[in-house]
Write a structure and sequence with these properties.
The complex is a heterodimer of chains A (305) and B (391). Chain A has 305 residues and is mostly helical. Chain A has one domain: ABC transporter involved in vitamin B12 uptake, BtuC (Orthogonal Bundle), CATH 1.10.3470. Chain A contains eleven helices and four strands, in the order ααααβββααααβααα. The N and C termini of chain A lie far apart (39 Å). Chain B is α/β, with parallel strands linked by helices. Chain B has two domains: 219 residues, Response regulator (Rossmann fold); 146 residues, 3-Layer(aba) Sandwich (Rossmann fold). Classes of the chains: A mainly alpha (305), B alpha/beta (391). At the A-B interface, helix 1, strand 1, helix 9 and helix 10 of A face strand 7, helix 8, helix 9 and helix 10 of B.
């Protein structure tokens, strides 16, 4: 019975990693860019949501907002922050320095944004975890001795919906075709009339949306937010993305779930101190045995979404 | 104004400031206002400022105003070492209050010994930290003693405590020592059977696996050795999984702010604190002033943490000792006066907001302990234990 509970815990935990792993996959798949600001975008939704629910809008514009409204604004801030990152790392630096900056400078500057934003939040709100005033934490079902939390079930359902919606967007919509064209070959896409200056920000907008939603669901599920909340999730989501396969949305889904399960089973059998060894050991093993990941393509790093 | 007159004015101003600096009692203060200890350590600056303002308002020490020179470690123990050298060698302080944590103090004590300057950390509670030190003293109470008092109080008050599980943060030095050594030994001593300590990691946010393990044995007590953030996650998950027993802890997460952080799930949690605001009118006045002043500085505190009260009392203890040994603050007598202050600590007894007639066993103060219970969303005193006698 305990093992079944741990497996269920693993799936629930994995669902947290999935959304962030999909955000990483999107930027890797389309732009060949490992966007280090993703953990911060995740954190911003939670922390801004908490701040608005606790303090209200700045400059005395309102009292505390209801928690769903506060989280909505948190997600909006994540999207806006993601667009700022696009403007000042990806677009500006690429324009200014051309192809020589294809990988290194956007990557390093996104790392800079990660640290700047995270530390700004720390300066503003301190390093303490903060209790998020979400729904009651009594929303737990006991099914034959197995505890299932209703908010986590709802989150899992929402995560599946988000991924299905994203897949539809990429496969069926005009924007999706543009994104996939850039993923295949940015220069050819340009020649064929895809306006990369208009399409690339959409990737960042979707990234901000995915991270924001993940951060909001996290705040509701765990009832706690902190400026550090993105750190562990960011690294585990990267592991999930690599295990699932770079550039594959459904690979990221499976990878995220696998990481969640591995984490829970490792804690169950060997203790929490061995989690990092197990997760990153799995990642290394995947890279040795199947470098493209479970669902990835042979052309590593050139994602075919 | 000519260049000459500007230079002359600058020189006069420099001389004046030098003369003023020599006319003060300089005390170093190693603090934390950044890094992972920021939230726990930053409010201590307010406690120190309150103490210094009160001392200066009442005439200072031996008629001289107290001048505090600060150094911020940013939560880095290496910086505590740098800070000690800077304050002792460059600033010529007479004594150092701080660093904040046990980890920083373990490093900085070595420098204090070498530089022969009294050092009194404000929140270091790791057992054995001052052993073999001449210049390291603490106005704090160690985890071992405080947790032992809590277990005695549980038994004495008929709280069911036959079985327990231990949860601890593995990568934080004090929590690790408490969870793997102190708690098991003290639980065994109290006749409480327990399973193997269960580690959690500081950055982990999901404690469902650990909570499920605990629920499998459903013990009477869950003893948590963790900083507030992690303790909150463990408590929340345990309650969500239906745990109805008692959750206990030592001083590590003993901060009045945890009442809000833990939320309703925290009700019934019992832990140890080295400060109780109701101890005396002075303690209550300090607590009120502290809450108001931290709020002005944009820091939300529900009450003073015992490390804040310890920092406050440490300055009054230094005042008492410096007045006893006749400290003048004269830079020419710096080394001599530093030695006199350390000598003055031997055999000292002190009354403050932490307790009355506080004495030192070795270099560690004997302080009373307060068993705190979070009850109906309030930080309440459940029981108290008097300070041990000094040998």
């Amino acid at each position: 019975m305990l093992l079944i509970q741990q497996l269920l815990n693993g799936v629930m935990l994995g669902s947290v990693y999935v959304t962030v792993a999909v955000a990483f996959t999107l930027t890797i798949g389309v732009l060949n860019f490992l966007n280090f600001t993703i953990p911060t975008l995740f954190m911003l939704a939670g922390m801004i949501g908490w701040a608005l629910a606790y303090w209200g809008l700045p400059f005395g514009l309102s009292g505390p907002l209801s928690w769903p409204m506060a989280l909505f604004f948190g997600v909006v801030v994540s999207i806006l922050a993601s667009l700022v990152v696009e403007r000042f790392t990806f677009r500006y630096l690429k324009t200014k320095y051309g192809d020589s900056t294809e990988h290194a400078i956007p990557l390093v500057s996104s790392l800079g944004f990660l640290l700047v934003l995270e530390n700004l939040v720390r300066i503003g709100y301190g390093t303490d975890a903060q209790r998020f005033p979400g729904p009651s934490h009594d929303l737990t079902m006991n099914i034959g001795g197995i505890f299932v939390r209703i908010p986590q079930l709802v989150s899992l359902f929402l995560v599946v919906l988000i991924v299905v919606g994203l897949t539809w967007l990429l496969k069926r919509s005009r924007i999706g075709r543009g994104l996939r064209a850039i993923a295949e070959n940015p220069d050819a896409a340009n020649i064929l009339g895809v306006d990369t200056r208009r399409v690339v920000p959409i990737v960042f907008m979707l990234t901000g949306l995915l991270c924001g939603l993940a951060g909001a669901l996290f705040a509701v599920n765990y009832g706690e937010v902190s400026p550090q909340m993105g750190e562990d999730i960011g690294t585990k989501a990267i592991a999930g993305m690599v295990v699932g396969g770079l550039g594959s949305i459904w690979g990221a889904v499976l990878g995220g779930l696998i990481v969640g399960l591995i984490e829970m089973l490792t804690i169950h059998f060997f203790g929490a101190d061995t989690v990092q060894v197990a997760v990153w050991g799995l990642l290394l093993l995947t890279l040795f045995v199947r470098p493209q990941g479970l669902f990835g393509h042979n052309s590593i790093g050139k994602g075919k979404l | 104004m000519s260049i000459k007159s500007i230079l002359a004015a600058a020189a006069l101003s420099l001389l004046a400031s030098t003369a003023w600096a020599e006319d003060t009692i300089k005390i170093g203060n190693i603090v934390v206002t950044a890094g992972f200890l920021k939230s726990a350590g930053e409010p201590t600056l307010t406690a120190v400022d309150i103490a210094v303002d009160e001392i200066n308002a009442s005439g200072g020490i031996n008629g001289k105003q107290v001048e505090v020179i600060r150094f911020d470690t940013g939560s880095d123990p290496k910086q505590a070492s740098v800070g000690t050298r800077k304050l002792a060698q460059d600033d010529g302080v007479l004594a150092i209050v701080g660093p904040f944590s046990s980890g920083e103090s373990a490093v900085a004590f070595n420098d204090a010994e070498r530089l022969k300057v009294l050092m009194m950390p404000t929140s270091a509670s790791a057992p054995g930290l001052t052993e073999g030190r001449k210049y390291g003293w603490r106005l704090t109470e160690d985890e071992h003693k405080q947790f032992g008092r809590l277990l005695k109080s549980l038994k004495a008050n008929g709280i069911k405590s036959d079985t327990a599980e231990i949860v601890y943060i593995s990568e934080e030095v004090v929590s690790n020592a408490a969870g793997t050594k102190l708690y098991p030994a003290l639980l065994k001593e109290a006749g409480i059977t327990h399973g193997d300590p269960i580690p959690v990691q500081y950055k982990s946010f999901d404690m469902s696996a650990q909570a499920a393990q605990i629920m499998a044995s459903n013990p009477d007590l869950v003893a948590i050795a963790a900083l507030p953030d992690s303790a909150s996650k463990v408590i929340g998950e345990l309650r969500r999984q239906g745990y109805e027993g008692r959750i206990i802890g030592s001083q590590i997460f003993s901060d009045p702010n945890v009442v809000e952080l833990f939320g309703p799930e925290g009700n019934g949690t019992m832990l140890m604190a080295g400060f109780w605001k109701g101890f005396s009118p002075e303690a209550q006045a300090f607590n009120d002033k502290f809450v108001a002043e931290t709020a002005k500085r944009g820091i939300k505190k529900a009450g003073a943490h015992h490390s804040d009260a310890q920092a406050y009392d440490t300055f009054f203890l230094l005042k008492q000792v410096m007045e006893k040994v006749g400290t003048t603050g004269d830079p020419a007598k710096l080394e001599e006066e530093r030695e006199a202050i350390v000598a003055g600590m031997e055999g000292v007894t002190f009354s403050g907001i932490l307790g009355d007639d506080i004495c030192f066993n070795g270099h560690d103060a004997e302080l009373p302990g307060y068993v705190i219970e979070i009850k109906d969303g309030e930080w309440t005193k459940f029981d108290s234990a008097p300070a041990d006698k000094c040998e």
